[in-house]
Fold this sequence. Notes:
This protein is an alpha+beta fold. The chain folds into 2 domains: 3-104, Pseudouridine synthase I, catalytic domain, N-terminal subdomain (Alpha-Beta Plaits), CATH 3.30.70; 107-238, Pseudouridine synthase I, catalytic domain, C-terminal subdomain (Alpha-Beta Plaits, 2-Layer Sandwich). It contains 5 helices and 10 strands; from the N terminus they run βαββαβββαββααββ. Strands 1, 2, 3, 4, 5, 6, 7, 8, 9 and 10 form a 10-stranded mixed sheet that branches. Helix 1 crosses helix 2 (74-81) and helix 3 (135-146) packs antiparallel against helix 4 (193-205).
Amino acid sequence: MPRYIIDIRYKGTAYAGWQVQPNATTVQGEVDRALQTLLRKPVTTYGAGRTDAGVHALKLPAHFDYEAPLHSHFQKAMNGLLPRDIAIMQTYQAAEPQFHTRFDAIRRAYRYQIIPQKDPLMYQKACWFKEKLALDLMQKGAKTIMEHDSFESFCKSNANNKTFFCKIVKSEFIWEGETLVYHVHADRFLRGMVRAIVGTLLEIGRGKIPLENLKNILAAKDRKQAGPAVTPGGLYLSEVHYPADTLIPLEMQ
């Protein structure tokens, strides 16, 4: 049976995260409902990751199986059925039917947006941080993060992970106009990891945690030793990468 992949973009403010939950409105629930309406049969999507409540995605790939070719108007029809804060940006067919958006991903990328001044248009889309920050110390802390591969201190305590190892290949702050953006890329992420890292680096930037303590925090393997998690509204899943020739783009009208 053909396996299809859709790149989903969404503003997560109104949702209890990506994954379907009882008695909660989720992004996956809305996508599955639209697919069932359009394809006239129950369809379950499988996402490349699980964003928490209030977190956004520029691109979250999800796959589903369907026995027939998709119509060229599939993407347009889906976007007509989905709420205004969820959209399908691209549609693919998997080169191999056993492809899995989560397990075959080789790298994921997140961005966290920080603004130094109050901006109503950025409400729930960026973190307004009023205090002056020592960006040079935060940048050094971001580089220190890349020197480590175990992140239990930055994982939610009830996450029930089998392993806390992650290979981070990018960790840096970049000014994009008037927004300070933390970019982090890795092979995988733990639950709550990015928000905990950013919260800790902000504590370093405001002088509440000495930079030299960061290595001790990482070695402690204790979430209580790290800084507080930042708000979810500034966090975006920005990209998920797969091996070359894994996905075949479909032409959509």
